[in-house]
Structures are given as C-alpha cells and as structure tokens.
Design brief:
Layout (H helix, E strand, L loop, with lengths): L6 E3 L13 E3 L12 H7 L3 H19 L14 H14 L2 H20 L5 H8 L17 H9 L6 H15 L4 H4 L13 E5 L5 E5 L2 H14 L23 H15 L6 H14 L4 H8 L4 H6 L3 H12 L7
Antiparallel strand pairs: 1-2, 3-4
Length: 330
C-alpha cells in the first residue's frame, strides 16, 4: 500500500531500496488544511528562482514516498529518520551528489516547516536532520565562454535594431555582471547608473547587492537604455516582431530563448545563462581578483560555491594536453 493522507510510513523499508515506501493505515486520518501545509509554507519562503527547483525536488521525494508526485498528498508529519534515510539511499543510486543533496535540502526544509507549524516535535526534526548528505563527486557541468565566442555573440546583435541592442545589453549583464537569469529580468531602469556603471541586483532570498560593470559593458547597457527610454520599469523589455518594445518584464524563460537564438546566429557551441556566470567567476579569478570579492559580487553565500564556478582548470588541461601529446608519426 502506498502512502496516503490517512496513513503513516512504515520503518521497515531497506535503506537501499528505491521503491515507494510502504505504509500501514491508521484509524484516525490526519488531514492537513492548506493553510497549515508544511510543503506550501516551505515553498512560499523561497525566491522565485529557487521555488521552481525545490518544487521539482519535492515532487521527487513525493514519488519515492508515495509512488505519485503530488506534494500535497504526502503527510509530511509522518516522515521519520528511517524514511528520510531510505529517500537518501534512493537518491544516491539515481542522481549526482549535488542533485541528491538539493532534493534532501528540500525535504529538510519541509520538515523544518512542519516543526514550525507544530506538526512534529524538535526530536523528530533533529533525527531527520541527522540523515547524511550524499557523498561523491561528478565532473562539473557547464563551461566558460571564450573571448572569440563572446565577440561572435555580440557581433550577432544588430545595434541598429531594438532587439539587437536589448540582446547586447542582456549579454553584458550576464557576462560582465555575472547575473543569474532570475536576477537579470528583475533589474529595473532605476537600478542602473549610466554614469558609473553601478548596478543594484535583487538576488536570491530577498538579498540585494551592488556591483559595477566595466566601461565597455556600461556603454552597451547605456546604449540600450537610450533606445528603450528612461521611463520607470524593467530594464530589459520584450521586443515584438515589428521590432518595438513591449512594456512588460521579460521572463527567465525568454532569456534562455534569446540566448539560443544568439547561439545559433553566432555559430558558437551551446551555452546557458549560467555559463556566462561561470565565465564571469573564472575571468575574475584569472585576473587576480580575490575569492571573497568574487563571492560577494556573484552573490554566493559561500566561497565554496564560488570555487565550483571556476573553469580555469579546463583551459589548463587543454594546454597540458597540447604540451604532452603523442609524438608525430612520420
């Protein structure tokens, strides 16, 4: 039997099983009203950019526990250390460590919300939090863009059109500012100082930070502002087929689509907005900027996260391969 709202989880599931957790029914169903749903409370505390990822993570947990991905159908108050351990084991077998740990973080977040709502006690929360992180490592994803690729991308942006000027500004903010997709669409005109290149960024978790764009990047964004006009509102605007701006905020999905268009037009290898961010971190570190400054500029909570964005070693490996190649066969 799978987990339902009128059931509690059993604790006899082997830790290595990836099947749905079996349950036994109880005589008194526990129906959690929506206003006291710990999953809903947890998700409501997240920034928009994190909300989507953690919602997907909770669907994975729900599937492992119940066989279905309905987050609201899981009686989170019944999850114990044994069940969390079984989930952790299944994640370790199916996902990369970083992905598995993100899903575990979502589970811990819901259990913390359950404690805050009085659905579980502190001992139950502490035991779930004792579940160990998924160990191991994988080859890091993503890449850094080369200078030649960047030139090709900016060349693909026609400065005589509104869409071209906007796309160039988008690239400048992503690459020279290291902004996330959710951050770049949140920038307003008033957040950018044309004279100094100072930019106010609205980051994850309602955290704001300031950074400065370089001279060239500032000029690119300023050119877009001049075409867009200085009226209050979002800095980056959609552009319709008639090459006219639309007075509404771009979505992060629209940003991803514009990058795909530019990638095809410029003839460069596939890249994402986060690859621009990786390029930003790598170039800053390569140019001697200290890790703490790069961390603060990128808006990372930990320098460990910042170091994961460093792609300088990829270039070093390529150079090493060229210096230590097979001898030429005559």
């Amino acid at each position: 039997m799978l987990l339902t709202r009128s059931a509690v989880l059993t604790t006899d599931l082997p830790a290595t099983s990836s099947a749905a957790v079996p349950v036994t029914t109880v005589s008194h169903p526990t129906l959690i009203a929506s206003e006291t749903d710990p999953a809903a409370l947890y998700l409501s505390s997240l920034a928009p950019g994190s909300h989507r990822a953690m919602q997907a993570a909770l669907r994975t947990v729900a599937t492992l526990l119940t066989g279905g991905d309905d987050i609201g159908a899981v009686p989170w108050h019944a999850v114990t250390f044994a069940h969390a351990t079984a989930v952790r084991s299944a994640l370790a077998n199916r996902y990369a460590p970083a992905t598995g740990n993100r899903i575990l973080a979502a589970l811990r977040g819901v259990m913390r919300a359950a404690f805050q709502l009085g659905l579980i006690n502190s001992d139950e929360l502490a035991r779930v939090n004792l579940v160990k992180a998924v160990r191991g490592s994988r080859v890091v994803r993503g890449r850094a863009l080369s200078a030649a690729e960047l030139r090709a991308l900016f060349t693909a942006c026609d400065p005589d059109t509104a869409s071209g000027a906007r796309d160039a500004a988008l690239l400048a903010l992503l690459y020279a500012g290291g902004l996330r997709r959710s951050e770049v669409v949140s920038v307003d005109v008033d957040d950018f100082d044309v004279s100094t290149g100072r930019l106010l960024v609205h980051g994850k978790g309602a955290k704001e930070r300031t950074l400065y764009l370089g001279t060239v990047a500032t000029a690119v964004v300023a050119a877009w502002v001049a075409r867009r006009g200085g009226a209050a509102g979002p800095l980056l605007l959609p552009v319709n087929r008639a090459d006219r701006t639309v007075c509404r905020r771009m979505t992060d999905q629209a940003v991803a689509e514009r990058l795909r268009v530019l990638q095809r037009r410029a003839g460069v290898a596939h890249f994402t907005a986060h690859d621009c961010r990786r390029s930003f971190v790598s170039n800053c570190l390569e140019n001697g900027i200290d890790l703490a400054t790069v961390q603060a500029t990128a808006g990372h909570a930990s320098p460990v996260t910042t170091s994961r964005y460093d792609r300088r070693f990829d270039r070093a490996k390529k150079i090493a391969a060229s210096l230590h190649d097979l001898p030429v066969v005559a």
